[in-house]
Amino acid sequence: MEKLSATEITALLLGFAVMLGLARAFGELFNRMRQPAIVGEILAGILLGPTVLGALMPDVFSWFFPASGNLAIAYHAIITLAVVLLLLIAGLEIDLSILWRQGRAALLVSIFGTLVPFVIGFAGAYAFPRFWGIEPGADLLTFALFFGTALSISALPVIAKIMMDLNLFKTDVGMLVMGAAMFSDLVGWIVFSIVLGMMNVTAGDDSPVTNGGHGPGIGVTIMLTLGIVAFTLTLGRWLVHRSLPWIQSRLSWPGDVLSFTLVLTLAGAAATEAIGIHAIFGAFLVGVAIGDSNHMRAQTRTVLHQFVTYIFAPIFFVSIGLEANFLENFNGPLILGVLVIAFVGKLAGCMLGARLGRLPTNDSLAISFGMNARGAMEIILGLLALQYGVIQEEMFIALVVLALVTSLVSGPLMNRFVYRPKEWKLEELLVTSQFVPALEAGTSEEAITELSRIAAASAGLNADLVTRTVLARERIVGTSLGHEIAVPHGRIEGLKRPILVLGHSANGIDFDSPDGLPTRLIFLLLTPAQDMTPQIQIMGQIARFFRNEQARQVIYDTRSVDMVRAMIKTETGLVEAH
Amino acid sequence: MEKLSATEITALLLGFAVMLGLARAFGELFNRMRQPAIVGEILAGILLGPTVLGALMPDVFSWFFPASGNLAIAYHAIITLAVVLLLLIAGLEIDLSILWRQGRAALLVSIFGTLVPFVIGFAGAYAFPRFWGIEPGADLLTFALFFGTALSISALPVIAKIMMDLNLFKTDVGMLVMGAAMFSDLVGWIVFSIVLGMMNVTAGDDSPVTNGGHGPGIGVTIMLTLGIVAFTLTLGRWLVHRSLPWIQSRLSWPGDVLSFTLVLTLAGAAATEAIGIHAIFGAFLVGVAIGDSNHMRAQTRTVLHQFVTYIFAPIFFVSIGLEANFLENFNGPLILGVLVIAFVGKLAGCMLGARLGRLPTNDSLAISFGMNARGAMEIILGLLALQYGVIQEEMFIALVVLALVTSLVSGPLMNRFVYRPKEWKLEELLVTSQFVPALEAGTSEEAITELSRIAAASAGLNADLVTRTVLARERIVGTSLGHEIAVPHGRIEGLKRPILVLGHSANGIDFDSPDGLPTRLIFLLLTPAQDMTPQIQIMGQIARFFRNEQARQVIYDTRSVDMVRAMIKTETGLVEAH
């Protein structure tokens, strides 16, 4: 077989070392400033790309990253693998049952939050084609479809990160935003894959990434795309769900689950690439099919996540900066136009959905700002459109800027509307009669049943109803926060004030925790159905408190609820003053 | 940048899906038959390569794996990354302090087990050059150096797997074999890298992987190689050891430890490739430098290990089968000759070392058969020699067969000499006075001190001496076996019979377990210094017993030593009858 030369291998390895090292250094720097790592990683790429390194030291730049030849091909092969893995992870995070079970408001936010920006983008493209850089005679329909999709898509990883930073990840508001974003992503990718199919048919041989027009016709591509989506999300999903337990019990765990996931991902990616849409769409669909199965344990997800987030994702984001010269193609008015139309479309759509779903204005605003975050998905979409010739460098850079700006501002804006004055304090909710120093339960179901009975008694509720509500919520996504704690919860119709019951299990119970540790402290939280605020505030306090390792240790070892209350009181004060 | 076409991406992704899927399926099949997975993975490659697929369906084969062009380059780039990561893992497993602390016998086995096969191989090459396929006029010195190295190198991953299968992994015999194999590997790779440097200077432009003779001269290459080795194993190692705690405490864990490890590995690989020896040598050295640090937690190693063992290693092993036609180049007499000279050299060297170290004949034989296992390392060595033109296809296939045969027979042969009739039964060693139902200790040091005191009292030994011995052993490699158990142990001068003390910790203690779980059952085991057998037998029984999950659960929950003894008695019987 033809091989890379020693010089090419040296450049390739050194190139990746520099890319990964610089990306992680900048990513960590931005994390320190409480900003998303992706912003730093893309900046690192701009430094290494034609914008800075290419302008200052063109020889060094072209030695590392030549425009053609074996080395360019080698980079492309590995970056393709990286982005395939990134989309696998994005798909794994999607669990449509979360959306269905969030009820009417979530569904309305999803639909309007996706539809309105799409329509505004589509119409905006037709209204001012020259402003967006479309030459007369170019394929305006394809661009309009792409632009609508680009404005309606969300960024699940960035949104998840913001939810975690705000301690909202497993609350109902967090789940609503996540569920609605999943819907946007899924619909967005399906529409975009059809746009890609259209491009592939109309594009000539001059586009480097198409089949040169030899792919199947547009009708066939759309049919095949919808066929693959339908198959993956029904039969494929069911097959995965049935085979995972067999693999986990009969083969090596988690190793063989990794191999199995990778084989399916590569095969799915190859299938979508073959029918004329991009490989990453198949990887994304396989991720959705696998992620839906509750047999995929949180710990396996964590291993995969670590590898992709800290190795493959940075390599991909750095490579963005290599694609274009960000200074030469920086078009201020265009960028401003994209930002305005993107903010207006997304915020208007989400507000409309939330208000129709009868959510209070504060919650609606928080949800809309959350949904407005775009990140990796926007950039991948833009990159493909650039490679297929749907857009030019200036528009690509405007989309990258849109992704970065929304990633940066969504957290602070959401924060403004979430942290209203505290009404409920953790230590006041914990009283002696609601502390179980030694749970009898051996499973998470038993623990929830045991604690629900106590909670129901103290609030004069039906114990069965409470148990059912909390168990139903638990089944959507496990409520373990890691660190040996879990917060099963539910919103109960007719409840007047929050109820908190704490149980302690010496042996630990399996709540499918992300860190694989057994759960020893279980907080059962009931809040009134019509108000999301107490849940957000109380779960936020629990999450913040247990980030402190010393505090955790004291709580694990104590059997007195007064001790727990005292600790929480002191530590919450300490942590917040910090 | 120049990019792969859609058809090429499809072939690449589908090719890797098939490679990984078939490799893991065959690997698991061989695991089921209690054989090393690598044998199945290489067979999968022979099926996919020119030997079977290429002969039966040449069109399909050349669509997937063309001999030249962009696709060949893309495969080579990804397989290069895979083998770089494989060598990183191989290096991580090397911890030279294990060897030094095993004492005189281990050192003698290392030295003679490496030197004798090297000398026999080197002499054999000069005595019968034509038999090994060396044409008159070819560079016999380079071949002789290579052949000696190929016969002296071991296969740490295969040996580690055999030790685990025989429940010997953390016993003294296991550690001795592992330590000696590490020595062989380290010396072997240094010698081989010098051979590569020689090749690189003498080879002309016709060899596809050399610099085309433009590399530095041979003297410079050797100096640079030794310089890099010296730097990595002294200052580099120290720097890694100092930076790891900072990274683990200040940055994201384990994600940033992964990024850090990868960046160093890629940079090290690029450095050795640049000076004219192969990239994998640098990856191996970085692995050694990082693996030596006890700040690299077992759990981080496990994550890395899972990814490489189940994704990158299978891809590399499958690619071996793509390199040559195994039927056309199958030379029976040559293979037999290689097998004979390899077995004779390794067994003679190890027996000599072990007997000089005054080990009993049984233990010496067991150790020699263990050291005879070759696997991945042999194959990588052979592949490089093939690519650099030091050997031809027939010799390459003989080396692959040698690796497979020794991987298959080492376990059974070793087993014969390790499992002599049992003298010590676990349940008889556990008596009431030596069971601590609730350990006070919070750290592994405290637990060892607490249990050592009891063990010393019951045997009339000095408690400080016992504690020191066990702690010293613990510091070499943690004795956690996962599943919440650990078996700290030591061999004590003057002790007449084994002493076993069991401690139970409700909260769990950090013994740096591979699965990240806290350790709740701690078996402290003391055995006589001059006899390795009781330790092997007792630790084997503990490891086997705790593979059974039901048995584990009962033990965790009980506080009565009689219950523990009864369980062990029944379950050991059950497990063994199984």
Concise synopsis of the structure shown:
Two copies of one chain form a homodimer. The first copy, chain A, is mainly α and 578 residues long. The first copy, chain A, is 69% helix and 6% strand.
Secondary-structure topology with pairs:
Two copies of one chain form a homodimer.
Chain A: H1 6-32, H2 37-48, H3 53-56, H4 58-64, H5 70-92, H6 96-101, H7 104-127, H8 140-152, H9 156-165, H10 172-202, H11 218-250, H12 255-274, H13 279-291, H14 298-323, H15 332-356, H16 361-371, H17 376-387, H18 393-418, H19 426-429, E1 435-436, H20 444-459, H21 463-476, E2 480-482, E3 485-486, E4 489-492, E5 499-509, E6 519-528, H22 533-545, H23 549-557, H24 561-577
Helix pairs in contact in A: 1-2, 1-5, 1-14, 2-14, 5-13, 5-14, 7-8, 7-10, 7-15, 8-10, 9-10, 10-11, 10-16, 11-12, 11-13, 12-13, 15-16, 15-18, 16-18, 17-18, 20-21
Mean pLDDT of chain A comes to 83
User: Biggest interface between protein chains, with counts per chain?
Assistant: A-B, 78 and 79 residues
Distance between the termini of chain A: 60 Å
Biggest sheet statistics of chain A: 6 strands, mixed
- Tertiary shape of chain A: globular
> Which radius of gyration of chain A do the C-alpha atoms yield?
25 Å
What is the CATH topology descriptor of the largest domain in chain A?
A: Na+/H+ antiporter like fold
Would you identify the regions of chain A where 5 or more consecutive residues have pLDDT less than 50? 203-214, 573-578
Helix content of chain A: 55-70%
* Elements of chain A, N to C (H/E): HHHHHHHHHHHHHHHHHHHEHHEEEEEHHH
Q: In what range is the share of β-strand residues of chain A?
A: 5-15%
**Tally of structural domains of chain A:** 2
* CATH architecture level-2 label of the largest domain in chain A: Up-down Bundle
Helical segment count of chain A? 24
* Total number of beta strands of chain A: 6
* Computed structural class of chain A: mainly alpha
What is the level 1 CATH name of the largest domain in chain A? Mainly Alpha
Please give the oligomerization state of what you see. homodimer
